Amino acid sequence: MRRRLLALLCVTASLVTGCGAVPGIGGSDRHTVTVWLMKDSASQDFLDRFTAGFERDHPDLDLDIRIQEWTGIGEKVQTALEGESEGEGGPDVIEVGNTQVPQYVDGNRLLDLTLESVAKWDKDEWLPGLADPGQRRFHQYGIPWYAANRVVIYRKDLFEQAGITAPPRTREEWLTATEKLNSGGNQGIYLAGQDWYTLSGFIWDEGGDLATEDSGRWEGSLDTPAALRGMTYYQRLQALGAGPVDADEEHPPQAGVFAAGKVAQIVAVPGLARAVVKQNPALEGKLGYFPVPGKSAAKPGAVFIGGSDLVVPRNTGQREGAVAVVAALAGAEWNSDLARTMNYVPNKAKLASAVAGEEGVAAMAAGAAQGRATPSTPEWAAVEADNPIKTYMTKVLGGADPATEARRASRSITQALTVSAG
What element of type H or E holds 67? Predict the structure, then answer.
């Protein structure tokens, strides 16, 4: 059925795509599909299981999984997409960061997987934070694989001492609880002044965004009323602790600050708790997790989603085999297996039950349903290179007028996007 459908697609779309003959169809020879995956994205045990299962289900295909380092991967992928890879050993499937997909779409170098996404893979059920960056003008190029996002890691013992019997479910409840916790020499929350990922979630919750597109032109939008409301909430929450206003969450690393024992909450990925306990074993068993609260108890707050998508280079010599690999890795069986193995969030909210037994991952999965990504433009990297959002946050938390600084930061974002695009 798969081969008949693909043949039909080639007939109907050949004038547009130049589909032509599909390698590997009609012969009895085995074919090798080369897959580039990033270091530590999947354990060797998972890869061994997946390879055995996939090759059993596809007796005409062999997998050649090659692990890549994150350092320098952008240039290496670009070279592969331009057809200057390792000859027949070039990649047929590539794992890329979800927010990196837009930079690879330009130049018509990725296979358009829209039809498969709609007809076979239930694309409407994917987490938006993974799916949206993989889309360009309603065409799907990046296929969601796995996600990770921030949650609130909290001290159960300090919550109990403050009389807080359950994690807050709304932003106002969160503020009230944090005010109670911010006493007796403890910080209610440690929130660095330049944690712009957390700020982004508050802005999205209010209906704003970091930048918006109009007729192909991107402009910074931190100065909209919605975005300013998000900044106001950030100010109120950040003031309930002693986070530095002129640094991000890595300076100093917040795991170390939390491990010192005088902080009730941080906003971080659940895995950071391991580093906290390693530095302070006395906190073993005292840490809990809950999703970043939303404006109402009906759903958690919006969060920035990180993770990976799978793409297929347009110059692949194993189109059908590559699509089969993507279908398997992103499908319910293996996607759930990966999530359980690596403590990831699966690519669909309905698969969250696969990680329900892990408190931190379950909280992450609940928040991921409201996950978003940075503006889907290849020029966004230019904004982050000299991040005006961080400067804006520091100035506002230092007492400057939010509206004035938001306009200044928005102009800087617009300029970065315009110069980079030009």
Answer: strand 61-68
Alpha-carbon distance 147 to 368, whole Å? 8
Helix (H) or strand (E) holding 198: helix 196-205
Residue type at 197 in one-letter notation: Y
Q: What is the mean pLDDT of the chain?
A: 92
Query: Phi and psi dihedrals of 276, rounded to 5?
Result: -65, -50
The kind and range of the H/E element at 334 are helix 332-342
Q: What whole-number distance in Å separates Cα of residue 59 and Cα of residue 96?
A: 27
DSSP 374-410: S-S-TTHHHHHHT-HHHHHHHHHHTT--HHHHHHHHH
* Average pLDDT score over residue span 243-252: 97
Evaluate whether 145 touches 307 at the Cβ level (below 8 Å): yes
Identity of the amino acid at 299: K
Q: Which residues pair with 43 in a beta bridge?
A: none
Residue 215's pLDDT band, with cuts at 50, 70 and 90, is confident
Task: Decide: residue 201, CB within 10 A, 0-12 exposed, 13-18 middle, 19+ buried.
Answer: buried
* 135 vs 139: CA distance, rounded Å: 5
Domains of the chain: 2-148+305-372 (3.40.190.10), 151-303+379-421 (3.40.190.10)
Task: Work out the widest C-alpha separation in the chain, in whole angstroms.
Answer: 74
Measure the N-to-C terminal CA separation of the chain; round to a whole number of Å: 45
277-295 confidence digits (pLDDT tens):
999 999 999 999 999 999 9
> pTM for the complete prediction?
0.89
Q: Give the H/E segment covering residue 46.
A: helix 44-57
Q: Are 124 and 354 in contact (CB under 8 A)?
A: no
